[in-house]
Amino acid sequence: MNRRNDPNPFDEEEPEVNPFSNSAASKSRVPRVVANTLGFGQKHDATVDIPLDTMNDPRKKEKELSNWEADLSRREREIKRREDAVATAGVPVDNRNWPPFFPIIHHDIANEIPVHAQKLQYLAFASWLGIVLCLLFNIIAITVCWIRGGGVVIFFLAIIYALMGCPLSYVLWYRPLYNAMRTDSALKFGGFFLFYLIHIGFCILAAIAPPIVFHGRSLTGILAAIDVFSDHVSVGIFYLVGFALFCIESLLSLWVLQKVYTYFRGNK
């Protein structure tokens, strides 16, 4: 048909647009729409800062330390609450069970001390038994010296050493260590270290036995043994045995101190 005779010259057939076609126009339009919608490639996009050195952050370490202290305080409160509950119920907490033939103290390492610390606690218990043995044998040796004419004063001094040393060593340093191992209390560990150093000092002093108290014969040390050998050889032998016991106790105590300190620093 002639276009000139067409009543509507503007009514032209528009080309059909296939929305699924791969034309260049559709290709150029879709990425622009997606970019405008999602915001990719814009200068105002948000950025994410990822710290590269989070392992050595002092604030993180301080937070971990605070969490550890809070957990320790919680454990101590829980133990205190249980002990109070048991005491309120009328159940004895520290029932005396040692020694078996005549119980005078409560001692139960197997059930009250953590498994990883039981070996160290038994070692400290051996140290306490060692000072008890040293003081008791000291009485025997001094008694022999008294019978051989050494004087009664050194005998009474040996009795005083034993009556004071055995219970005080238990109360001042062994029991605090026992409770420290059970509750992991830093305060109780501090009390143990203080009085255990005094204990080690006494053991070294007894092993030397300087002539400061009644010529040093009230303790079975090496200087006292040399002194009594000139009078009685048999008494000197007793003194030498006592000297050996105090030396062994001193070395054992130093070993226990080193082990407990390593354990304390490892836990803290």
What's the SSE blueprint?
Layout: H1 24-38, H2 58-89, H3 109-112, H4 115-150, H5 152-183, H6 186-208, H7 222-229, H8 233-267
Helix pairs in contact: 4-5, 4-8, 5-6, 6-8, 7-8
What portion of residues is helical?
Answer: 55-70%
Distance between the termini: 102 Å
> What's the β-strand tally?
0
| Helix/sheet category | mainly alpha
Strand content: under 5%
What's the average pLDDT? 81
Question: Could you spell the SSE succession in H and E letters?
Answer: HHHHHHHH
Q: How many helical stretches?
A: 8
Radius of gyration, Cα only, in angstroms? 42 Å
Largest sheet: none
Shape: elongated
Q: Unreliable runs, pLDDT <50, ≥5 residues?
A: 19-41
Q: Can you offer a commentary on this structure?
A:
The termini are far apart. Helix 4 (115-150) packs antiparallel against helix 8 and helix 7 packs antiparallel against helix 8. The radius of gyration is 42 Å and the shape is elongated. Helices cover 69% and strands 0% of the residues. It contains eight helices and no strands.
State the gist of this model.
With 268 residues, the chain is mostly helical.
Core attributes:
mainly alpha, about 270 residues, 8 helices
